[in-house]
Design brief:
Elements: E1 2-6, H1 21-28, H2 34-51, E2 58-61, H3 65-72, H4 78-98, E3 101-107, H5 111-118, E4 124-131, E5 134-140, H6 141-149, E6 154-157, H7 170-181, E7 192-193, E8 200-201, H8 204-214, H9 221-230, E9 235-238, H10 244-248, E10 258-261, H11 262-276
Parallel strand pairs: 1-2, 1-9, 2-7, 9-10
Antiparallel strand pairs: 3-5, 3-6, 4-5, 7-8
Helix pairs in contact: 1-4, 2-3, 2-4, 4-7, 7-8
Length: 289
């Protein structure tokens, strides 16, 4: 079995293809937010995978990547995905102004240790369970530093100005719920694994409900990986650029599950095509003049 996985917002963004700009700006306006750029990149990869006749058996996404996963599963079209992600970006930008905060990744510390350290520290919670060796803490601006000070491990501050995946952005989450209720979802063509709890979603309503929860709920990527392993997924392809999820897969003791980025897979397909149709020296047709 093959899975398509989509990373969340992080790393460098790429500019959308020029031919897509009129459609994107028609829906989101002149300023194209980074979240929209991430979604567009993931959607472009998805469309290219279809042209290559490369199909997933299951899809999953990390944070923002869940919208790309829902698009890849056929739950809504490209224009709807653009609009949804633009609304999500707007609500989170407002949350950053009203409830400033941030996120810090804790590397090489067990998740249980991070949870214990936060028990008596108000203003911060676990936002992402990324792997057995990486946990992300989300918190209010004045509380976040004190919260992670007592946790062992390497700490990396993420480039966000709001406490994502936490109860501190509940108002933004409620507004996103209303937006999602206004959209008609189609039944997914392949199952989607929810990053809220690792459950397998097979109906339109289940995908909608998962997206309504995911903005405030912690990202439980560990559960996603465990579910994919139970489903006997042998290979995942990471679409959307960056390769962060494929690198995190190394933290899991799952030799039966291997990961590859779409860029690497595209190159591999190209090499296979060259091997099947090797170039031959041009020879003059003896019948030609």
């Amino acid at each position: 079995m093959r899975a398509f996985v989509f990373p969340g917002q992080g790393g460098r963004t790429s500019e959308p293809a020029r031919e897509l700009l009129p459609k994107i700006r028609e829906i989101v306006g002149e300023r194209i937010p980074d979240q929209v750029k991430h979604f567009v990149r993931a959607a472009q990869d998805t469309n290219e995978s279809r042209e290559l006749d490369l199909r997933p058996d299951v899809v999953a996404g990390h944070s923002l990547g869940e919208y790309a996963a829902a698009y890849a599963a056929g739950c809504f079209d490209f224009e709807t995905g653009l609009w949804l992600v633009a609304q999500r970006d707007r609500f989170l930008a407002e949350a950053a102004r009203k409830t400033p905060g941030g996120m810090i990744a804790i590397l090489k510390a067990p998740p249980e240790e991070v949870e214990r350290a936060l028990e008596d520290t108000p203003g911060s919670v676990v936002a992402n369970y990324n792997s057995p060796r990486q946990t992300v803490v989300s918190g209010l601006k004045e509380a976040l530093g004190d919260a992670v000070e007592k946790i062992r491990g390497r700490k990396v501050r993420l480039n966000v100005s709001f406490p994502a995946h936490s109860p501190y952005i509940a108002a933004a989450g409620e507004r996103m719920r209303e937006v999602l209720d206004s959209i008609e979802f189609r039944k997914p063509e392949v199952p989607m694994v929810s990053a809220v709890d690792g459950s397998v979603l097979t109906s339109a309503q289940a995908v909608r409900e998962a997206l309504k929860e995911q903005m405030v709920a912690p990202v439980r990527w560990v559960k996603v990986v465990e579910t994919l392993a139970r489903m006997r997924v042998e290979e995942w392809v990471e679409l959307g650029g960056g390769g962060v999820l494929t690198r995190m897969l190394r933290d899991f003791d799952l030799p039966s599950l291997r990961g590859i980025t779409f860029e690497d897979l595209r190159a591999r397909i190209g090499r296979q095509a060259q091997n099947l149709f090797p170039g031959v020296p041009w020879q003059e047709d003896p019948d030609s003049e």
